[in-house]
Structure formats: structure tokens, C-alpha cells
Amino acid sequence: MSDTARATPGKPVHLAVYDTYADWETGHTTAHLTRRGYRVRTVAFAAEEPVTTMGGVRILPDLALAGLRPEDSSLLILTGASLWDSGDTLAPFAAKAREFLAAGVPVAAICGATAGLARAGLLDGRRHTSAAAEYLAAQPGYAGAPDYVEVDAVTDADLVTAGPTEPVAFAREVFARLEVYEPVVLDAWYRLFHDSDAGAYPVLMGAAEPDDA
Predict the structure, then answer these.
(1) Can you give the pTM of this predicted structure?
(2) Which Pfam families match (predicted)?
């Protein structure tokens, strides 16, 4: 494929939302997936009940968690939230992630969501990262310490993980897993948005968005 070639979006990407959802952690990911032609649908415990993000934004979800099936999705994004650190309130979202991984559908978890996956045993045997190794070590049931890596974000097969300060690296891993950009374009995207490298801008301008093709 050429440098501007891209994977064709098919099934929607599903973004988990719940009260105290950390708005900033997935903004790059969802904005640029949308620009590349993906549909982003929000998933919560109940579709008819709005949730309020950590930034005070109210979201009316598109879909209830119980109705989400891996076969209808390209990716499940689990966002960070204070609720991940206050018991097992969000455990059903970790259970849904288990369904996705078992079906071979990617899951991307950032910040506190990695703790929820740790408690569910979903990080064991998979290379992963988070805010800090000590953060995950404190999670009941976690046995994945040998597979923890000190990087901004990492992908192991169908699982993407990142810490709370790395929304751009998180997006990069998601884009790579979904083959949203050719490698040279993805590298330029990351250099521009993470490193403020102005030299990357012409590369991105040469990669037509779907609406321009």
C-alpha cells in the first residue's frame, strides 16, 4: 500500500463512559478515529441515563453495556475514572473486556481502567503498562508483575494499555492496532502531537483524510 493508504473502517469503536470518566485521556483517540471515518459510540450501564465526566461534561450514552457484543465492534476503549479505584462498581466493564479479548476483538485501557483489568486477571500473561508498577501491584488478584513494562503505552496482541499521562501514546497504539495510518504517517502523527515536531506536519498534510480521497 502507499503511504497514504489506510484500513477501511467497518464496525464502530465503542467508548466506555461512566461517572468521573477522565475526559482528556481519550480525546486524541476518538477525534482522530472519527476523522478517519470510524463511528464512535458511547457505552454505559444504561443508555437512557446520562453520565458526568470528571470535567463536568454530561454525556447521554448511545448503548447499554448489556447490549454490547464483541462481534459488533472494532474496539472497546476503557477510560480512566475515579470509580475504578473505589471498589468493583465498574467490574462489569472489565467483564465485557474479557468477552472482547476472548473473541479476538481489541481492548484499549488507560489509567484506572488498567487496575480494573488487573483485578480481573486480564493483564496476567500479557505485556502491559499503567501509571506505575506499584499501582497495579496493590490490586487484589493481580499476578501480572513479570509482564509489566515501563513504557508510555504498549500493545500485546489485542490489548492496548497506557498510563494517565500518555493520551497521545495511547492513541498511537490504538491507531497502529487498527491500522488507521500507514507506519510513516503514524510516526509523523505522533511526532507532531507528542513532540510538537513541525517537520511532521507536511507528512500528515500529504495523507488525505477519507473525506478528501
Answers:
(1) 0.92
(2) DJ-1_PfpI (PF01965)
What is the rounded CA–CA span in Å between residue 176 and residue 6? 11
Please state, in angstroms and rounded to a whole number, the distance separating the CA atoms of residues 102 and 95: 11
Residues 119-131 pLDDT 10s: 999 999 999 999 9
Domain that residue 213 falls in: 181-213
Share of the chain above pLDDT 70, in %: 93
Output the nine-digit C-alpha cell for 2: 502507499
169 lies in the same domain as 213: no
Residues 56 and 106 in one domain: yes
Say if residues 120 and 141 touch (Cβ distance below 8 Å): yes
- The DSSP symbol for 23 reads G
Q: Are residues 64 and 141 in the same domain?
A: yes
CA torsion 102→159→118→141, rounded to 10°? 40
